[in-house]
């Protein structure tokens, strides 16, 4: 588990974004329990936050919890691998899971659309909860969410650029 931090500033709001990468995940010959280091990392961050919140002095309490998992799916065109299903099942109750087709621009638009439908069908069959962008009261947030939903309903493709903006997390529910 590798961690990187970047400070994002927009409209007077500062956000420290932490990116956690798991290089080599699922590359072993025996992948049984390969998700355990990721689950342990997520659990330890939640435990650290709970311990800090339980203290008498809570002034400097950084939130290092994992709030979202961008789960990249190999563009095989054959649906989810058993490892993908097992990992997302173990993860979906801990963090918001957003499945993405990795290197989607290597597929034709028709192949990508069929692959996405297959993935969504398997996600529903296995009762895996994925993150759904909610409606909000803020027009700017709604415009961004509509833009994301349009992209989501067409294709997840690496050649599409998405305008990411800071959003008020109080608008969203886990």
From TrEMBL:
This is Septin-7. InterPro entries: G_SEPTIN_dom, P-loop_NTPase. Residues 1-174 form the Septin-type G domain. Pfam families: Septin. PROSITE patterns: G_SEPTIN. The gene is SEPTIN7.
């Amino acid at each position: 588990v590798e961690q990187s931090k970047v400070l994002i500033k927009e409209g007077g709001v500062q956000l420290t974004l932490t990116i956690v990468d798991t290089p080599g995940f699922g590359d072993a010959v025996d992948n049984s329990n390969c998700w355990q280091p990721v689950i342990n990392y997520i659990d330890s961050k939640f435990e650290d936050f709970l311990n800090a919140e339980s203290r008498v002095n809570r002034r400097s309490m950084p939130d290092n919890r994992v709030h979202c998992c961008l789960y990249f799916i190999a563009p095989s065109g054959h649906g989810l691998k058993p490892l993908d299903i097992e990992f997302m099942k173990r993860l979906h109750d801990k963090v918001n899971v957003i499945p993405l087709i990795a290197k989607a621009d290597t597929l034709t638009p028709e192949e990508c659309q069929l692959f996405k439908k297959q993935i969504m069908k398997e996600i529903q069959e296995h009762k895996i909860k994925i993150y759904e962008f909610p409606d909000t009261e803020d027009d700017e947030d709604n415009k961004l969410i509509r833009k994301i939903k349009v992209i989501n309903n067409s294709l997840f493709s690496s050649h599409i650029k998405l305008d990411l903006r800071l959003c008020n997390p109080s608008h969203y529910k886990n």
